[in-house]
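#data-curation
PF: Archiving a pair of folding outputs for the training set. Convention for this channel: one message per protein, sequence first, C-alpha cells after, nothing in between. First:
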Amino acid sequence: MALSNLESTLITWSRHSSDTEEQQCENALNMIKNAINSYDKFNNMNFQLIPKGSYHNNTNVRQNSDVDICVVLKDTFFAEYPEGMDDSNFGNSDSSYKFSEFVIDVESALVNKFGRNKVTRGNKAFDIHSNSYRIDADVVACFEYRYYYKDGSFTKGTKFIARDGTPVINYPEQHYINGINKNNATGRRFKRVVRILKRLKIKMSEDGIQGLDNISSFLIECLVWNAQNICFNQPTYTDDVHNVLVNLYQFTKEDSTCNEWGEVSEQLYLFRSGRKYTRDEANKFIVKAYNYLFE
C-alpha cells in the first residue's frame, strides 16, 4: 500500500521531535544528573553520566522519545581479560563495593529526588515517570566495563547485571561517535532515514501488519547504519529510502552476507547469538516496509 504524496510524507517523517518535547527530554536529563550529584554517599565517587538511546543519538521520534541515561561508576569496573590472564596481570584487585549495592544506592538517589511513586525498578532500568515538565526516563546503573588486551590497553564500555541475572554490555560512546560520522558521510541523511523507518514501522503496526514485535528502534538504527553510504544523499528522500531498503534486503537474504555486520558501536555483532530478533525477521521487515511504501 503505497502512501499518497510519498515524498512529502517522508520529509515529515525525517524530522526530529518538536522543540517542546526536546525541552521535556532535557529537563528529565538534568534532573537525573542532579539526583546523582546530590546523593551524599556518592560525594567522593567518580561518575560519568552517559546519555544514550534515540534521544541522545538524535534519531528519536515522537512515539519513543524517552530519555535513556547510564549512571556509570568508574571507581569500580567489570573487566574481561585475555585467556589465561587475570587481575594480577594488570594490577587490578576486587572491590568491596558490589554492583548489587550500587544499584540500591542509585535507586535511593532517584527516590530522594523524584519520590517513591515516580520511580519503578524494571529488569534493566529504573523508569522515572513523566509529568508536564519532563518526559519518561530510563536510568541504568552501570559499572565501567574494560575489555583488556595483552599489552594492557583496553576498550571501555558499560556493563550491568539485569535483575534476572543477565549481564549486559554496551558501548554508548562509540555508538554516538559512529552515528555522527555516518551522518556526516551521508550528507546528514543517515539519521533522517532512521527516523523515517522508525515512523514507518509505527504506521505499519497501526495498520495491523504483523510480525513487527521484535523490530526495535535500536535494530532499525543498526540496520540503516549497515546500509552502504552510496544509498544516501540522492535527489529525494524517496530515492534514499528505496535504495536503503533494497540494499538491506540484498545483504540480509543470507547469513553469509551480513554475518560480520555490527551494531552502530562496531563493538558487538548484530546477528550473532543471544539476540531476541533474527536475521530472517529483519529481512522480512525490510520486505514488508518496501512493499508498504512502493508496491
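PF: Second:
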Amino acid sequence: MKTLVTGAAGFIGNELALRLTERGDEVTGIDNLNDYYDVSLKQARLARLKDHPNFSFKKLDIADRPAMQQLFAEQKFERVVNMAAQAGVRYSIENPQAYIDSNLVGFANILEGCRQSKVNHLVFASSSSVYGANTSLPFSEQDNVDHPVSLYAATKKAGELMAHSYASLYNLPCTGLRFFTVYGPWGRPDMAYFSFTKKILAGEPIQVFNEGRMKRDFTYIDDIVEGVIRIVDKQPKVDTQWSGEEANLSTSYAPYRVFNIGNNNTVELMDFIHTLEDCLAKKAKLNMLPMQKGDMKATYANVDALNNAVGFKPKTNIKKGLKKFTNWYTKYHTPRHSGLDTSFRA
C-alpha cells in the first residue's frame, strides 16, 4: 500500500510511519522540520527510519502549494495520513498566523492533492480541543463543537468541515481523529509531561495552572498509533440512515467519519504529577498559577464509536505509560546518546 504520512518527523507521525513500514507499506514521509521545538529531536526520530528500504523522506512544507501539487502528481498515493500541523494551544495565542498557514492552507493543499490524484482514503488528525467550552463529560462525537476556546481548536474544527466538504463534493473518503492528550517516548518537548520531567530532574519549579484543578484523558502513543492504523484500513462508507433532521454528528450522507481516540479515563493533574514523581523518584517543586487562556479544565473521551467500528479502545494506564516515558527520557538524555549520529539524510 502506497501511503503518504505528513509530519513524519513529528511525535505521532513518526511512530505511525515506523509501524506502517514495519508491516510492509511503502511510505513516503514529509515534514518541514521547523524549529517550533528542538530540530535535533525530529532528526533523531527520522533516524529510526533511515534503514527501512520502503521508507523515503522529503523535506517539504504542506503550505507550499506548488511543491504539494508536484508530490501528489508524481507519487500517486493510495492513502494519505495527515499528521502535519502547527501544534500547541498556548502557542496559538502568541503566533496565530502559523496555525492559519499550516492547519488551514496546508490542509487545503492536502485535500486538493487527494482529490486530484484520487486517493482512496484520507485520515487526518483533529484534536480533543475542538470540544472547547463544552462541559458535558465524557466528550462524545455527538456533542456540539461550535465554541472553541483557542485558535488551534478552531483550525482543527475548520479542518473537519473542509474534509467533509471534499467528501461530499468529490466523494473523497475522509476520516478525522480527535486525539486526547497524547504522551510517551519521543514526545513533544512543549507538552506538560515532557517539560515537567525536565524541570523536576533539574530541581526547577513546574508551572501548575488552575491551581492543579485540571483533568486530562492521557492517551499513550502506542494506543494512538494502533487506533490510527485500524482506521487507515477502514474506508468510511456513506451512512444510508443519515438524516438532516436528526443528524448524526460523527457520520454523514458522504463518505466521512470522525472518531475520538482517548484512553476513556480522566486523570487529575495533581495525581498525574504525583505519578511522575514516583517514576522519577524525585519530588516536584510546584508553582501554582491561575487558569491560562485557551486551556480546557477537563477532557474525557467517549470511545464507543471507535470500539464499535474497529474493535479497539486504548488501555494503557498512566502509571505504565509514564514509566515507559521516563525510562526513555533518561536514556535519550544521557551523554552516550547525545554523541550518536541521529541525523537523517534524505
